[in-house]
Amino acid sequence: MSYRSVDSEAYKKAYANKNKKKKSKAKKVLKDEKGTFEWEGVRGRRKKKYLTNFSDAQPKAKKDMTSNKAYPLPFGETFRQAKARGDKTFRWKNKQYHTKTKDELEAKYEKGEHYPITSDTSKAKSKKTLREKLTGYSTQAGYDEAKSKRVKAKRIAKMEARKAAGKSYSKKNLADLKAS
Fold it and tell me: 97-116: per-residue pLDDT in tens?
């Protein structure tokens, strides 16, 4: 089909309708709790563009909209309140703190109510290594030696049990085990 066989009148109407100027939409100015704004961008990606300048009006508005739990008191104020209530400890920003002042701690130290610092190493407990905690021995050689002693003692006990039961056993091997 060639372009000449197209109905020219219908074509002209369609072309005329297509090129008609669309009504221009004036940008609407809207308001919300933060101020006046216009929508900016294309459909699906539109954002609010505020017409007023917010320097610190926005954080203040946010603080007014939220509860005071989101904004804790300063540390000093929280400390004073806990001290006035007579609490020994208090929480601030999800961490535990005590209510003793520096002067109270120094006075306690001067009175001698603190833990004494000993330089005597004989009284101090030695910390066990992981190997000592798990096996009870500080070295592999110590563990192997103790294991061989246990095996030997167990073997002697079994041979003496056979002897007491009147069963056969090696007198020579028993004598060697007991001698070494």
Answer: 999 888 888 887 777 766 65
List the one residue out of 85, 116, 79 whose CA is nearest residue 101. Answer: 79
Nearest Cα neighbor of 113 from 122, 97, 96, 100 is 100
Using CA atoms in the order 138, 141, 146, 150, what is the torsion angle rounded to 10 degrees?
A: 140
Quick one: pLDDT band at residue 166, thresholds 50, 70, 90?
very high
Alpha carbon distance 34, 39 (integer Å)? 14
Summarize the confidence of residues 57-61 as an average pLDDT.
Answer: 60
Specify whether the CB–CB gap between 156 and 174 falls below 8 A.
Answer: yes
What pLDDT does residue 96 have?
92
Q: Which residues pair with 90 in a beta bridge?
A: 97
Torsion of CA 139, 144, 149, 154, to 10 degrees: 130
Note whether 144 and 136 are within 8 A (CB).
no
The C-alpha atoms of residue 82 and residue 158 are separated, in whole angstroms, by: 70
Q: How confident is the model at residue 131 (pLDDT cuts 50, 70, 90)?
A: confident
Q: Which amino acid is at 75?
A: F
Cα gap 40→177, rounded to integer Å = 96
Return the closest-CA partner of residue 177 out of 143, 146, 152, 157.
Answer: 152
